[in-house]
Amino acid sequence: MKVFCILSDERAGQSKSPIMFSRVLKRQGINGTYVPFVVKPQDLGQAIQSIRILHIAGASITVPYKEAVLPMLDILSEGANIIGAVNTVVRDGDRLKGYNTNAIGVMDALNEAGFNVDGKAALVFGTGGAARAVVFILNWLRAATIYVAGRQMEKTESIIGAFGGEPLNMRLLSNRSWPVDIVVNATAVSSRDESPEMADLVSHLDIPGCQLVFDLNYGRQKNFWEELAHSKNIRFMDGLSALAYQARRTFALWTGLQVPPEEFLNALQENEGGR
Fold it and tell me: Does domain 2-100+240-274 have CATH number 3.40.50.10860?
């Protein structure tokens, strides 16, 4: 039996990846399982080493470890190296190679939604690995302007230095209007329970002309990004489609099989009622 896993902090138990990948593995006739592992920050190195020791076939890396794993891997794909974040690990013998399928997953999700980034202005929230993937792909898709809003200006400026754009202090966003075409939440926060301060900030955003609010998170109750979109009659999209598309790319890296994205979307939708 092949074993695949996801490595995260306590949020590993909230991920829909285990049920999604497990269902696709079964439907593809692969004798395999996909399990969530909760890893403390100080144990991340040992967890990565365990992929080798336990002969785990592949691993998903999610918040908060997408950047921290970089020096722990033997080799990085070109995309992972450019973006500076990894969400997929492939084991080849004792060698571990890191890939980033987040960026292409975001691109595929935007294409599915019929949203053309070319020439558009974007406002991206976040400075972690997910934000790096988003800013990278928006630049690659020729967005005209990309504002990156973060709490730590050092990390915000690091993203700008790597991919271009304009850095913003998140706390100052409510001081003016932001005429952008798309807002992307690449932070891990989407509900008031997670951050009342962030919820208040987002509720006061002035984004005239915005066409799409895209939250990379999913499954949140009382999602304040969705509330923002509805209050301003803007289209809203959560991260389920992006998850399915990046999962398709990850699955191909692990198994060599090209499975249609609909298989992953169907596996996610089947579980919607049980979450």
Answer: yes
